[in-house]
Amino acid sequence: MKRLLLISLLLLSGCSSEPASPKGDHGNADKPKVALIMKSLANEFFSTMVKGAETYQAENPDQFELVVNGIKDERDLGRQVALVEEMIASNVDAIVIAPADSKALVPVLRRAKKAGIVVVNIDNRLDTEVLAAEGVEIPFVGPDNKAGAKQVGAYLASKLKQGDGVCILEGVLTSFNGQQRFAGFAEAMQDAGIKVIDHQTAEWEMSKANTIASSMLSEHPETKAVLAANDSMALGAVAAVKAAGRSGEVLIVGFDNISAVQQAIRDGKILATADQHGDQLAVFGIEKALQLLQDPQAVVEDVETPVDLITQESLTK
């Protein structure tokens, strides 16, 4: 009987679990878990960001764990909100997010912060008015999209004549980065005395940009250039210009510096783009998150990251 009692006690001891972590303790403090939540991973720009983050984690395996999530369609706001909720439930230490919408993601990110999770905003800045209304501070780590677009626009303007007409393909209208890129393009055109004869959203999508650019070229045959708020739309414009038989006549610029556009620039199909160093952008956000985890009392400040003009000349240097 004593032997049976001893075996029973040993079995009970072996089946016991660790005590649950107290509220606010998000796991191993020596190795925090960072969730990277992206927009569409079908877009090369965001897949490049993920590869950069994974490479950084592999080079620093003792510093943090990385969990990567993304949505299939950049307009699927509901799924991105659900991903944040899943990460809250998973008890991650930090969320680094490229929000698909500047306003819609703020409430769920406020809940994440209330749960004790560090939140860092990358790529597309969250709306400052909505953040203030929700009473939450979230640092933005990313480039000045307006300045980057203005650089690209000014370079394009140097290849045009005063009075020429251009069209602009905008991103998702509720995305701050899309708004800022449109503003930068428009300001560069105004400064150069060039007319914006049409502008429409193609919602970051190549196929939609192809359709809209085709319509623009048909309706406005005087178009001398198309300015696209991202490189996927620029590639859509390239196809539209080719289909219209106007390759070499209509100049095209983009924004993001994805590899396909680098080749198109070398081939003379696209004039220029802006490089916001996508391979490092998520890394910059992760570094900010780790800093805030180490010092929870640190002042929440934005971090401006570089953005550079990319042309045929710069690619051949």
TrEMBL record:
A GO molecular function held by the record: carbohydrate binding
InterPro entries, sorted: Bact_Solute-Bind_Prot2 (IPR050555), Peripla_BP_I (IPR028082), SBP_2_dom (IPR025997)
Residue ranges of every copy of the Periplasmic binding protein domain listed in the record: 34-294
Keywords for the protein's UniProt record, in alphabetical order: Signal
Predominant localisation class: other
Signal peptide boundaries: 1-20
Coiled coil ranges: none
Pfam families documented for this protein: Peripla_BP_4
Localisation: Cell envelope
GO CC field: outer membrane-bounded periplasmic space
Family: Belongs to the bacterial solute-binding protein 2 family.
Name of this protein: Sugar ABC transporter substrate-binding protein
Organism of derivation: Bremerella cremea
Lineage: Bacteria, Pseudomonadati, Planctomycetota, Planctomycetia, Pirellulales
